[in-house]
Structures are given as C-alpha cells and as structure tokens.
C-alpha cells in the first residue's frame, strides 16, 4: 500500500550500509528508507551510530580521517557516493543543522546570504535581499531580527542562533535537512519554537532529526528509527514505535531500561 503512495516514496534509501572508523565498525548493514514530506527521527543510546548515519547522507564522514563507507546510499535513486558526485552540490541539496548553534562571526544578513553567494543564486542585490528575507521568514526569525540584520549573528540568543542556522540551511534551497540534536543546547521555550518550525518545514523538505529526547521524537516525527550498537533494530510509524514496538530492544529503550 505504501509503495503506491508517491508522497511516501523514499527520498533517501540505504541498503547494507556499513561505516568503519579505521578498524572500528560503527554501522552494520543498515537498510533504511527516508520518505519525503515527513520527519524521520533517529533514536538510540549514545554511540549507537545515529550521527554516523546522518553524516553519511551529506558525506560529512568524508572529512573524518580513516572513515570508510560500504553499501548503497541513494538520494532520489542516485548514488550519493558515486565518484562523480560534486560534494559541494550535494551539501547544498542536503543541508545540516548541528547540535550547537554555529553561526558565522558575521552579520545576521551575511550568515544567511553566505550560501546563496557561494552558489551564485542571486543575480543582483535585490534578489539576494529577497532570499535572505524569505529564509529568515521561513525560519520564524524575521520578526525578531528585521531591524538588526547588520548586527552579528553570534549576538543572538541560543534559540535565535539555532533558527538563524536553519535559515542559513534553507537559503540554498535544500531538499533534505539533517539535524543532529538541534535542541539539546536550547531551553524549553526555544526548543518549542524549533520543534514548531520543524513541523512547518516538513511539507517542503525531507527532515531527518537525531534526538535523545523521546518526547521530542514523538512530538516532531512521523517515522522513527531505533538504532542499537550500530544496527537498525526497528523502523516504523512513530506512534507504533512508542506504543507498540515489535523488538524487545526497542521496548527496553523506550521504557528507559537502558540508554
Ligand atoms: N571520528 C570518529 N573516529 C572514531 N570513531 C568514531 C568517530 N565518530 C564516531 N565514532 C564511533 O562510532 C560509533 C558511533 O558513533 P556516533 O557518533 O555515530 O554515535 P551517536 O549515536 O551519534 O552517539 P551520541 O548519541 O553520543 O551522539 C561510536 O562507537 C563512536 O565512538
Ligand atoms: Mg551523535
């Protein structure tokens, strides 16, 4: 039934994905489909490979010395690890938001304009202004910063900085947004704002979020994947994973027996 639903087709698909850091194997034969128009949450105990899986999708692991990736990983059916893939283009299509907000030490405006400038997305200043304003608006930040666009991005509050980083990611019109514990450095109010934003963004982007908060996974995601010791143990509708897990390991984790 799912296969007939085009809205639910896999945007990102992994088959037999393995990752090694030198001798150490971090992922074992991961088969995972990530659908468009949905938020997919990756959960599991520390060290189980959530960030490793996430970083494969935009090839951030390329930057890690001794990291090796085997198996297949595709974006819209195209091999992400094909030797002719332009990694800069890939990372424009697959944006990333990190655990700690990391705005550049530049103005709010220049933070958002950075990607569009690099990729030559605007023909003139007016177009660049438009991209910056739209991105800030989509990130739910425009109202708070429109009168101080030339002030430094690092002067914003933590929650505002994280939304600025989301605006920066959105500005290059990505298709997929990867978020690695995007709220773990934020207070509950800022967290609620970012969660609300994630829900709004899912219509237009495919979102994958790593979180240690099961409440957050339940609030923001439609599908949840549970990892344990480098293996994907179970993947399903978020509600099913949290109310009726099929695997004892998943059950143990969500009821807090380990993790
Ligand atoms: N750069 C690296 N070099 C060597 N080993 C690494 C590296 N990055 C991760 N690992 C190892 O790979 C395994 C998976 O790590 P990963 O960071 O993906 O886990 P995680 O699920 O994101 O954990 P956490 O919840 O603590 O962020 C761990 O055993 C970790 O020690
Ligand atoms: Mg991690």
TrEMBL record:
Q: Does the keyword Nucleotide-binding apply?
A: yes
Asked if the Swiss-Prot or TrEMBL record annotates the protein with the keyword Transport, the reply is: yes
This protein's source sits in the domain of life called Bacteria
All copies of domain ABC transporter, residue ranges: 12-254
Keyword annotations: ATP-binding, Nucleotide-binding, Phosphate transport, Transport
| A GO BP entry | phosphate ion transmembrane transport
| SUPFAM superfamilies with a match to the protein in the record | P-loop containing nucleoside triphosphate hydrolases
Recorded GO molecular functions are: ATP binding; ATP hydrolysis activity; phosphate transmembrane transporter activity
What name has this protein been given in UniProt? Phosphate ABC transporter ATP-binding protein
